[in-house]
Amino acid sequence: MTIQKLNELFDKGYEIKSKFGTTIATQLKQGMDEEISKIRTDKHLTVHGQKTKIEELKREVAREVFEVVAKEKATYAKVAAEATALAKKMKTDTIKPPSNAVDVKLFEQELAALQTSIMLNTNADTAIKAIDAFQSKYGDEPYYASELQKTFPTFIQAVTTIDDSPKHKQALTRIYSRVEEKATTPEVTKANDILSYFSDGEDIKLFREGTPQHDTIKTYIGSIANHINSPEKAIGILDGTIQTFAGMAGTNVME
Q1: Half-sphere exposure of 144 (CA within 13 A, CB side)
Q2: Residue 55: partners with Cβ closer than 8 Å, 6 or more residues away
Q3: Is residue 52 left, alpha or beta, with left meaning phi > 0 and alpha meaning psi from -120 to 50?
Q4: How far apart are CA 126 and CA 155, in angstroms?
Q5: pLDDT, tens digit, for every residue of 100-144?
Q6: With the CA atoms of 103, 104, 107 and 111 taken in that order, what torsion angle do they form, in degrees rounded to the nearest 10?
Q7: Phi, then psi, of 139 in degrees rounded to 5
Q8: Interatomic CA distance for residues 226 and 192, integer angstroms
Q9: Which residues contact 243 (CB under 8 A, 6 or more apart)?
Q10: How much is the average pLDDT of 192-196?
Q11: How far apart are CA 91 and CA 3, in angstroms?
Q12: Three-state DSSP class for 98?
């Protein structure tokens, strides 16, 4: 059920990341082309009047675009926060042991015996072979692999006390990698994928500079589009409450 929920959240995030920019750019182009055409064919307007009207339209539409982008960023941040929290919880959930209690008990006994054997061993190669054989026998079951993973530091200490040569450390590293892989459940794999995917969180950039979508936005609303990924700042510039890089609030940023 949890994986299903994470998949649903991933789909929502992916929809925003992959399609929102194209949708907005397409709608903007269609709407602006139509409105600009009406202005330019309006015989009651002079050339200067047409230019003024188009600039007013750009500013009005720019505000609408930034408000929509701000809303979508907030939606993405909410989805990312929910997915991240769920994924973190999934990573910390305890792996349930197999249903056969007898098998679990036998495993525990053999693991304890292995620990004792490794700690008393005086030959590093023999100890490493014993550890590898044990992980081959039990490692395919995630619960057993996770229990072996918890014990592994004591194995490392015991073996390296006998001989801490690079050869033995590398052998232990290879075995541990196999144990770690087998201890990673599908739930943990999904959780890791989700945490990686939503790592941008509130810093999501819905438009990448130089893409057709970004260029389209800039064509129709001007250089203010350079702030498309910071819509609140862009609205502040339009309102004159935030100074532009040119140093003056309210300067023409629509060109």
Answers
A1: 23
A2: 252, 254
A3: alpha
A4: 12
A5: 999 999 999 999 999 999 999 999 999 999 999 999 998 789 999
A6: -170
A7: -65, -25
A8: 33
A9: 237, 249
A10: 94
A11: 12
A12: coil
145 phi and psi angles, rounded to 5 deg: -65, -40
Give residue-wise pLDDT tens across range 146-190. Answer: 999 999 999 999 999 999 999 999 999 999 999 999 999 989 999
Q: Enter the DSSP assignment of 184.
A: -
Could you give the maximum distance between any two Cα atoms of the chain, in Å? Answer: 100
**CA angle 172–178–179, rounded 5-degree value:** 85
Query: For residue 253, which of 55, 21, 48 has the smallest C-alpha distance?
Result: 55
Report yes or no: 84 and 115 within 8 Å, Cβ to Cβ.
Answer: no
245, 76 Cβ separation under 8 angstroms: no
How far apart CA 83 and CA 90 sit, in angstroms, is 10
Give the model confidence (pLDDT) of 42-100 as tens digits.
989 899 999 999 999 999 999 999 999 999 999 999 999 999 999 999 998 889 999 99
Helices 212-221 and 47-92 cross at an angle (nearest 10°) of 140
**Rg of the chain's alpha carbons, rounded to an integer?**
30
Rounded to whole angstroms, the Cα distance separating 131 from 152 reads 9
